[in-house]
Specification:
mainly alpha; homodimer; Tetracycline Repressor, domain 2; HTH-type_TetR-like_transc_reg (chains A, B); DNA-binding; 10 helices; HTH tetR-type domain-containing protein (chains A, B); transcription cis-regulatory region binding (chains A, B); 207 residues; DNA-binding transcription factor activity (chains A, B); Arc Repressor Mutant, subunit A
Chain lengths: 207, 207
DNA sequence: GTGCAATTGCACGGTGCTGTGCAAGTTCAT
DNA sequence: ATGAACTTGCACAGCACCGTGCAATTGCAC
């Protein structure tokens, strides 16, 4: 062990990484994908997967952890130093979009029942932020909705999922999807369409 | 057979009905619910369920058929004779809400992969209607969205699901949910919040 | 009560998945 | 080339489920 205890990407680590990546894609396509399907898709034998992850649940759990971490980071970074609620929502959604597009699995799995508890718990902080933000916006009159802030947070989540599906089905161009999703989220919160479009153009254009 | 060939609800029919009802609830809670779980929940033995439905798939298929039929009917009836796109959407969503609330299973199942094809096919006519409606609204300038009509249809579907979840979790009152959902759908399509609220009040209040 | 339909209880065979064990390769650094 | 880590290829036990068969039983109608 001369200099390879950390940052070492032996083929073992490479395999582990590829298994995770492939598992993500495979589980997205079919939340019930078996370990064998995942292994084969990763160009590896089932037994090897068990060499890296002790159980199916452990594999998924790792996936979820990675996804949540990425989402929380993106959200925090996007909103760093922004005070205006509308702009905050816009930046947040745009940033989340980039990550979530890759981790669509999360939403697919969140729809299921058994594992749902763990995921919801782990996503709680993210959702709490969003709710707080929406509440401020509603009180300030920037937003306007018959729905209370927590329900609006649900709406935002599902809305992103809908746009992702639309992208999957080729109804929306990938490079437009993020902005379109953001505008839709803002208008769904009761912001005038013109203001929302303008804000998003400003926020995403000036990058 | 004196007078009971039709409209006869022998305990056989009663059981069949209860099995369907319970299966709906049970599958909503867990899309992977086994035949045994369903049977027990219906106060019946597994073997009996197979007496009514030849396979798990047949049972679910019956459920889906009933749900789709109810949805299509509600939609058609709600929009009968209404020409204005916005009002049409409003009436349609309100009507669909009543039915969909009971058939949340559909959306839960639609999220899954295997059975998805059949369901999507059967829902196609309903979605086609909605898309056409949205397209007209967009062209007329009543709606305004960066998303094309088909993508907006996805958004509407998922949005209803989000509100249903919010209701489930006690974040929104059931008797307000339909109207709130409708307003949110309209604003998400780019309609000003004030117009949407007004329209929904008018359409749903004057019943 | 007699008869018919439906329900029950149990016992199969079949299938597909999970997680484990172990011996035989393979790959890579030293 | 030697050793260590990793991978492979099988084989196995366990489990949960599906769909079916059949004999016994229950409930309802007449």
């Amino acid at each position: 062990m001369t200099a390879m205890t950390t940052g070492n990407s032996s083929r073992a680590d490479t395999n582990r990484r590829r298994i995770l990546d492939v598992a993500l894609a495979e589980l997205l396509r079919d939340p019930d994908a078996s370990m064998d399907q995942i292994a084969r898709a990763a160009g590896v034998v089932r037994r090897t997967v068990y060499g890296h992850f002790p159980s199916r649940e452990a594999l998924i759990s790792t996936l979820v952890d990675e996804a949540v971490e990425a989402l929380v980071d993106a959200d925090a970074q996007a909103r760093h130093g922004v005070t205006d609620p509308a702009e905050s929502v816009a930046r947040s959604v745009l940033a989340l979009w980039e990550v979530a597009d890759r981790y669509r699995l999360l939403i697919a799995l969140a729809q299921r029942t058994v594992t749902v508890q763990g995921i919801r718990e782990r996503l709680a902080p993210l959702r709490a932020n969003k709710v707080e933000l929406l509440r401020r916006g509603l009180e300030a009159g920037v937003f306007s909705s018959p729905l209370p802030a927590p329900a609006l947070a649900y709406v935002h989540e599902q809305l992103l999922f809908a746009v992702m599906e639309a992208v999957n089905d080729g109804l929306v161009a990938v490079d437009e999807a993020g902005r379109s999703a953001t505008v839709t989220v803002l208008t769904a919160a009761g912001m005038p369409a013109s203001s929302a479009t303008e804000l998003v153009a400003e926020v995403s254009g000036g990058s």
